[in-house]
Amino acid sequence: VRYLLSIMFKSFTESDISTQNQAKSSVARGVKSSVVEDYPRMEECAPGLFPKKAQNVLVKCKDHVQMFAVNGEVLFFQLRDGPWIPTLRTLHRFPTMMPLVRVDRGAIRFVLKGANIMTPGLTSPGGALPQHLEKDQIVAIIAEGKEHICAIGRTLQSADEM
């Protein structure tokens, strides 16, 4: 699992923002439909997450990163033309929107510093790995003994390969 947020936000400043524009309603609908398609569990939360009379802003940054903000709060980001990925704040509001993997205690400090998670950290007694994971699937990462999601990642292998 690759730890995406460390790549993007480790040294993020305002100078990294290229443009920041009000999103057209068609763009906002496209983001919403993409999010609901990628995260089917999100459909019941979508009205609360994407209110009708909201100020939707599309922020374009360096290195082909886009962020989608609703009423001043960044909810999702996109790397190149990949899927829209929720921020940790969004995941804390809707923790069941994506599959959850758990890393064992020994990996916690390394994960919080941005390290990739290796298979032994997920398959050891303290880790947990859902059986239905596919390759390149976005997952929420939780640490053993903790209740909140600490990272977001992308699987580089399916659960069967791990």
Automatic annotation (TrEMBL):
Top-level lineage group: Eukaryota
Compartments it resides in: Cytoplasm
Gene Ontology MF terms: RNA binding
Gene3D superfamilies for the chain: 3.10.400.20
Domain Pre-PUA: start-end pairs: 14-95
GO biological process: formation of translation preinitiation complex
One GO cellular component term noted in the UniProt record for this chain: cytoplasm
Keyword line: Cytoplasm
Residue ranges of every copy of the PUA domain listed in the record: 101-162
Location (main, coarse): cytoplasm
Pfam families per UniProt: Pre-PUA, PUA
Name of protein: Malignant T-cell-amplified sequence 1, variant 2
Organism: Perkinsus olseni
Gene (name only): MCTS1_3
